[in-house]
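During the second year of the project, the team shifted from modelling isolated chains to modelling whole assemblies. The rationale, set out in the original proposal, was that interfaces cannot be judged from single-chain predictions alone. As a representative example for this report, we include one of the complexes processed in the last quarter. Its constituent sequences, exactly as entered into the pipeline, are reproduced here:
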Amino acid sequence: MRICVLVKQVPATDKVKIDESTGTMIRTEMEAELNPLDMYAVEEAIRVKERLGGKARVTAISMGPLMAIDAIRDAISMGCDDGYLLSDKLLAGSDTWATSYALSKAIEYLGGFDLIFCGERATDGETGQVGPSVASWLGIIPLTYVSKIEEIGDGYIRVWRAVEGGYEVVETGLPVLLSVVKEINEPRLPNLAGKLKAKEAKIPILTAETLGLERRMIGLEGSPTRVVKIFYPKLSRNGRIMSGKNPQEAVDELIKFLAEKGII
Amino acid sequence: MLADFSSFKGVWTLGEQREGKISSVSYELLNWGRGLADKLGVELSSIIIGYKIEGVEELIYRGADRVYIVDHPLLERFTPDAYARVLEALVKEYKPEVFIASATTLGRTVMPVLAARIGTGLTADCTGLDIEPETRLLLQTRPAIGGNVMATIKTPNHRPQMATVRPRSRKPLPRDPSRRGEIIFKEYPEDLYKSKINFLRFIKDDTLETPLHEADIVVSGGKGLKGEKNFQMLHELARLLGGAVGASRSAVDMGWISYPHQVGLSGKTVTPKLYMAIGISGAVQHLAGMSSSETIVAINSDPDANIFKVCDFGIVGDLFEVIPVLIERIKKYKEERGND
Ligand SMILES: Cc1cc2nc3c(=O)[nH]c(=O)nc-3n(C[C@H](O)[C@H](O)[C@H](O)COP(=O)(O)OP(=O)(O)OC[C@H]3O[C@@H](n4cnc5c(N)ncnc54)[C@H](O)[C@@H]3O)c2cc1C
Ligand SMILES: Nc1ncnc2c1ncn2[C@@H]1O[C@H](COP(=O)(O)O)[C@@H](O)[C@H]1O
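Output from the structure prediction step:
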């Protein structure tokens, strides 16, 4: 079985800068990490391989600047067999439409996969759109919000999808793309052997030319959406703070406040 | 190069149904759509796909000028392949200039599939939508990076302009049964409806009294609760207020409550009328999931806790003293009101 995981490198969540002129995130000079939600995708891919008695190969694929190679190394240290980085100046500024097009081309270039895993969403852009769009480009089924793989057999898979109010149990044929939620597993920590393997792994770089990407479909120019304004919301609310009051007094004030707001 | 988009007209909203009953997100979305359609001076249409869908006129009473309905046994449940094909066929035939859906698990699955198929942009999880008067373009505003940044996005050269909108970000318009509109039943060859997905069963999550995303009131607990059994207090409080129980990641990681309750960057985003943060410090990752709540109340023993900066009402105190008093007072308040 051929399995791949789409992993994204994201800025460490509490230190993010934005280029105000282009409205895109400044990805250099910034601490970056493997998208935390992608770790669940990596873990699940490895678990499927283990379930199949090792008869599978797990490939990590990422698109991003050269430094995104670290995200692939992180995935390999957890247990992926190999990895590819899709990196090219022409891809800079791609939105989810262009990104999913490029990733789907990389997947085709590598010969396709039976299972494609991705995270529920990336913690920077937070769209969750790339996975389903990749499936759409490839003409395969997206199973989103997967919280459990109940069964995986010869050419089919049965999963739980975490939807509003509960879980939907569905079955479909392979190939398939799965976006997984955090509930699905507990990602492992890389062991020493994994770390060593990741350090030494050769990670080929795929360019727009290698993949034969159409220029008008990638990068800022090829992206249908344009960021036109960036602003920083004021989170502070200057609320009323009850300090040094006994609980009875404080709660009385709270009840009054809630009643005035029409909440109770 | 400017493409000619004059054949694209009208605003569409994607309605949702479950077991034939139209979900409330469909009406919330019509409120957004109505505002946009009025600014553009065009018609507002609602799309609804399913089987034995009841009360379709309600979509008109809540703001639609037209309803396109595709009703077939094979469409009873959402499947991304069949639903995307139906939407593609509708969009290609009627050419809306704007098409919005709710950022539900359905909307967030089918819209990216559709966007790739028809070659247009899609903006996720918007909290604001408007029309730029000079260009008539849709301005799509959304939070990113855990709500630390807001971005306004346009789709200048592609149609339709598509976005998903955060559920509960608007109330439905008041019901107006005197409104008139057109209901159009569309049919396509059955092949279009056939999905490769087999639905087997639905498992209801009983641990959520009210689903978090639907609750008007969310009572959330954090590490300050110190243990699983103390969450009982929050369940009681939530029941009294008719709300749902949420939690910080720390509380979930400690195993005091299950993951579907987690609010924040790697959990759910909620925008209730009232959010109560109890024993939660207010880390940026937690704020990412709740900072756009209408009213925020915080209870924390540490006067310097970050949560006090973002709350409308805060109590500095020991939650183990405050919460029992609060529960008792709310009970009393309700009794008094009940006796009026
Ligand atoms: C990539 C990433 C994603 C994350 N995603 C999320 C997420 O989705 N959701 C989330 O919540 N967090 C998330 N976090 C974790 C986040 O950074 C914080 O660690 C977490 O929110 C802290 O939870 P807490 O407030 O319950 O715990 P703490 O920070 O330990 O705060 C507990 C609070 O309780 C108060 N307290 C203690 N005892 C009492 C008492 N008796 N009475 C009153 N108050 C008391 C304390 O003063 C303190 O302020 C994420 C972190 C990372 C790195
Ligand atoms: N540049 C990228 N490279 C590889 N995978 C990506 C990339 N962007 C998004 N993904 C995958 O798609 C998921 C959703 O991302 P997003 O749509 O950006 O929220 C992520 O969790 C990844 O699995």
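Chain A has a mean pLDDT of 93. The radius of gyration of chain A is 22 Å.
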